[in-house]
Specification:
With 259 residues, the chain is α/β, with parallel strands linked by helices. It folds into 2 domains: 1-50, no CATH class; 53-248, Nucleotidyltransferase, domain 5 (2-Layer Sandwich), CATH 3.30.420. The protein has helices at 13-22, 24-31, 36-39, 117-123, 135-146, 156-163, 172-180, 200-211, 213-226, 230-248; strands at residues 7-11, 44-48, 53-58, 70-77, 87-93, 98-103, 129-132, 153-155. The termini are far apart. GO terms for molecular function: 3'-5' exonuclease activity; nucleic acid binding; ribonuclease III activity.
Length: 259
């Protein structure tokens, strides 16, 4: 993808054809408003899907983007080793059906690396609530790769473990199915996220990791209140940046809290 101002909009052909079969006029009316995306000049790839819109940004978020006070965040990396594997993609959603994906490209590959001031300003804003699933990893990679300090984080995995003590299924796929009735795919979980061009399947997978976190947190917060464990959860969340820092310094194996 050249680093020039351009825009490519990809409308879901499957969705268009399914609507066209039932009502050609409705299909056209739904498609035409998005035509401007094909000719606009901005460094964004926009992919329209059945119930969500995915925006892929190169290097940073647009300076004019107002994403709200509560955001869902996830990351994609080359692997799970903070010292070896680089940060490739950051997914953000305001819970409005839009997912903003930011590609982080190293300078040696023609990118800007950690030079993403708009993104860093958002992630380090203490007034912004940040929803994550397994925040321990994401907070760690974001703090280390971007050189920021994060706070006001809430982790749906920790929340689930505190209240769903009747099961050991605390993965995002399980929680979305059990609490929201939503099935999400994990087929692209092991994927080359460092590729210069992401496939539509990769983009859809990455977006699904943030599009449901607001609804999921609302359900889990209610359960935390019901079980009188919200204060305990908040204490766990507040410790996450320090826990991530300990992991990066090598205090995870053996765990500093173990005997």
């Amino acid at each position: 993808m050249p680093d020039a101002t351009f825009s490519v909009a990809v409308f879901s052909v499957r969705l268009f054809l399914s609507v066209w079969q039932d009502n050609p006029n409705a299909a056209c009316l739904d498609f035409i408003p998005h035509l401007s995306s094909f000719v606009s000049l901005s460094p964004v790839i926009t992919q329209f899907m059945a119930d969500k819109t995915i925006h892929l940004h190169r290097h940073d978020l647009p300076p004019s983007l107002d994403i709200g006070p509560i955001i869902a965040i996830d990351t994609e990396t080359m692997g799970l080793n903070h010292h070896r594997d680089r940060l490739c993609l950051i997914q953000i959603s305001a819970g409005d059906g839009h997912a903003h994906l930011v590609q982080i490209v190293p300078e040696r590959l023609g990118g800007k690396g950690a030079d993403c001031p708009n993104l860093k300003r958002l992630l380090s804003n203490p007034g912004c609530v940040k929803l994550m699933h397994y925040a321990r990893f994401d907070v760690g990679i974001l703090q280390n790769a971007l050189g920021i300090a994060m706070s006001n984080v809430k982790c749906t995995k920790i929340a689930a473990k505190l209240v769903r003590t009747f099961t050991d299924r605390h993965g995002l796929k399980d929680l979305c199915r059990d609490l929201l009735g939503v099935e999400i795919s994990k087929q692209q979980q092991s994927s080359d996220w460092g590729a210069p061009e992401l496939t539509p399947e990769q983009m859809a997978y990455a977006a699904s990791d943030v599009l449901y976190l607001h609804a999921l947190w609302n359900r889990l917060e209610g359960l935390l209140i019901r079980e009188d464990r919200l204060a305990l959860a908040e204490a766990c969340f507040a410790f996450l940046p320090a826990r991530a820092r300990l992991d990066y310094l090598g205090y995870d194996e053996p765990d500093i809290f173990s005997h």
